[in-house]
Amino acid sequence: MSAYIFDTETTGTEQPDIIEAAWLEIDAPTSLQVVSQFEQRYQPRHPISLGALAVHHIYDEELVNCPPCTTFQFPAQAQYMIGHNVDYDWEMAGRPNVKRICTLALSRMLLPQLDSHSQSALMYYFFRPHARERLKNAHSALADVQNCRFILQKMLALLEQPVQTWEQLWELSEQARLPRVMPFGKHKGTPISELPPDYQDWVLRQDSMDPYIKLAIQKARQALHQPPITTNAQ
């Protein structure tokens, strides 16, 4: 099974282009040994926003002689993509046909007491004596995937039952991604299982709704032996 910890730096939130990509190919969740690594900068089609520049400190003029961002390709043999808030980088990679493992969701499930679950915050939580040094290059794509690997290693050690395969870790990530409470709207903070039935129906009919919110509602209905609603997508 091919699994890659993946990260990108981009031009910003509007019309984003990849300007830097990096991955670590990892052998197995039992060891997290690096099989290969990749890092490359790209020339974007759009200017880098000031907000993005303030995060990654990559200048447009540094990318003039880099390959076009349109040439980026995620490894075709990959079966799993691992990342902190992995959906963003999956989108930037062109939505490859892989199973996504989200370390952000896992950290929220395993460490609910923390006031922040950003990758930098987790580095301070797990590696306080050395975190500041390790974070000097944070928001460099390669540094970020390396730090993600360190964090994943620590989180796997928290599990009562060791994870043996990437499929098991993906299933755990999928469980972690299901919201326990409604994250927004007029019922924000309400447990998913306690949402009014008519509001559940409305959420399930929204084509643009987060699929994990829909799945959480469907699972809550199943637990209560309620028939699932037919959505527009079905």
Automatic annotation (TrEMBL):
Pfam families per the UniProt record, alphabetical: QSregVF_b, RNase_T
Keywords on record: Exonuclease, Hydrolase, Nuclease
PANTHER family noted in UniProt: DNA POLYMERASE III SUBUNIT EPSILON, PROTEIN NEN2
Matching SUPFAM superfamilies: Ribonuclease H-like
Name of the featured protein: DUF3820 family protein
Exonuclease domain location: 2-161
Coiled coil location: none
Organism in which the protein naturally occurs: Paenalcaligenes hermetiae
